[in-house]
What we know:
The protein is 34% helix and 22% strand. The protein is built from 15 helices and 25 strands. It has an eight-stranded antiparallel sheet, covered by helices on one side. β19, α9 (371-375) and β20 form a beta-alpha-beta unit.
Amino acid sequence: MCGIFAVVNDKSNQAAQTTLIGLKKLEYRGYDSWGIALIPEKRKKIKVEKHIGKIGQAETKLPNGNIAIGHTRWATHGGVTDRNAHPHLDCKKEIAVIHNGIVENYKVIKSNLSNKGHVFKSETDTEVIAHLIEEKSKKVPIIKAVFDTFNSLVGSNAIVVLDTNTETVLACRNGSPLVAGIGNNQFFLGSDVPAFLKFTNRVHFLHDGEAVVLSKKGVKLYDLKSGNEKMLNAQILDWKMEDAEKGGYQHFLLKEIVEQKNTIPKTAKINKPALKTISEKIRNGYKIVMSACGTAYYCTLAAKYFFAQLGIESETYGSYEYLPFTKFANKKTVFISVSQSGETADTLIAARAAKKQGAYIVAVVNARGSTLERLADSTLSVGAGPEIAVVSTKAFTAQLSTLYLLAHYAINKPEKGISKIYQLGKSLEKWINTKLFTQITKLAATLINNEDLYLIGKHLNYPASLEFALKIKESSYIHSEAFAAGELKHGVITLIQKGTPCFVLSSNDEAKDEVLSSAAELKARGGKIIGISPVKSAEFDFHIKTLDLGDLTFFPNVIVGQLLGYYLGIGRGTDPDKPRNLAKSVTVK
Ligand code: F6R
């Protein structure tokens, strides 16, 4: 939640404009409001610009200067107002602070500072940080004041502080992502790499308990508890600037959906040593327990079917519901945590709880340098590249194909899994084309004014339906609800009336006939049946033909949902890249 950006020694001397460019890349992390603080040339007082709403095509009128910080907000404490937007200042306007996280003890800090005469201008928890640093810096140097302040905050937080007196940017991390970019004599901070990828791919992902100080001379790394300087070993990422650009597409969401024809087969090339290590444990009797949230949770549900069909037992939990079951994890558990960001609070809590029980933690993760990756014993990095759209698509399919491969490694048939994933990539390459887009656009046009859609699927097509429905909800705000086909007669069927759109997801498999019987039952109640399937059937009023790939039909069936959500969103005037109320990484419980 919230996007953070900073630049020091900006080459163009237009640090505010550079910050705006960075913030536009981070808008997917929060888009209630945005703000920039800058030290203008030859002046000591910080200049601030703040606005509510999306950053979109915004421009900044801030003057020249080579040092600035900026923030896109996803509100937690305090409504969406200019005043509550970050950055927040101290009383003397010499310190500006931006923040990602929640300061759980902010009320106590605020009341102590108020008693000392500090005046607060916002309702946020963040503003107390600026004033506490101001108070502490009366007695100690700014670096110590910042570290001491940060160490006294309760909660998962990342802060970035702009200090006019030393002309430095100081940043601290505990539980919220922060990455430093080391460019050619100009230095950056971001919540995520795409923010500054245009300028550098040389990075250091801050660990919890680390801080950096950016000055004209460079970036210094510190341990927050001791205050001692540490060795900074920057790494070069293989990400390119184009990865964070729309590349001719109108939206990142569409670009990322199309990219799946490359990102899925890429998973068959990577992670081989880790897949071997983890699969050996599974063969040696370790029990698989998976955990994740949202789309990533549906990925684990689908993986459970993939494991089962190869004779491997597994369990999965929404991470937010895992704690009552933690006690069953032990030294013979492989605990697979799936996450695009690797920063989802509930996912991390579940993984830490399983780790405490002695479980072997596997992170199936897309973003780089994440908290999840650091706490895991082994990482399957799914390599889908930066996923900018808030709605997860390519990360989901890359995670699932990685788990599909793991299942094949576990039964000692890696080559079979690899060749099936390559084949899937080739089939998607041909199938994802203008003809498919036209068909789905036509379908979207018939559904645009519906407020309720229902979906059914059986076996693998059940998690496919859940994920399909989530894509529609997120991208178009249409209420869409998925059920296991077998659940239909146990209550759900009351919802069906004349003309109710009912999606029936099926594959050419053992469950097909049963699902089609359910489709017939829906049709008999007036339902308008939309078949998503490789095979046409008499029950369908509308049919999107997918690919006949056995168990891997799951993938094209879900991709139809991703595309349909996208086109419905466009038709209904939503912003498919940034759905309302959502943030790309949910770093609070
Ligand atoms: C759906 C979506 C969310 C995330 C969920 C978990 O499109 O993006 O449901 O899947 O918030 O996020 P990660 O994968 O980062 O743990």
